[in-house]
Amino acid sequence: MSLLLLVHLLTLAVMMGLAIAAALGDVKTYRIPNTISLALLGLYPIYALSAPHAVAPLAALGVMATVLALGFAAFSLRLVGGGDVKLLTALSLYAGPGLVMELMLVTAIAGGAIALALMSHQTRHALASALDQVGSRNLRNAVLTDAIPYGLAIAAGAIFLALRLAAQAADATP
What whole-number distance in Å separates Cα of residue 14 and Cα of residue 21? Predict the structure, then answer.
């Protein structure tokens, strides 16, 4: 394995780790720190320069701008949180035009599954009871609210994206 490919794969692993950290923070506090989205943006040049396949940074910036504009509109209508928009916007840079729709689809499916699970009164109260038993009152209270930590769904999309990008890198390596 070449050093460049190793750097590329490590970049994807860090991208996944940052998305998972955002999800965990979202579950705990319903906040996604700006530092995570900024770290993803700062990591992108390393990703693009180490990619063993063609990356179109200008097209990716166009995709990112579109996701940001649509996300801002959804945020203005109070449909999503600002941290969710920033995280998804940063991840869309990596997806670029070739994978952005897959990223959105996986994120939407994961979000729907999470919403369905939390809609069930029994599931919500069973989860809250379990969290109460382990002494996690903040998480228990979060589960009992109507809000959905969409960072979890975005992290699922990010994991899918990282795996797809790693497969592309492996296919492009001689």
Answer: 10
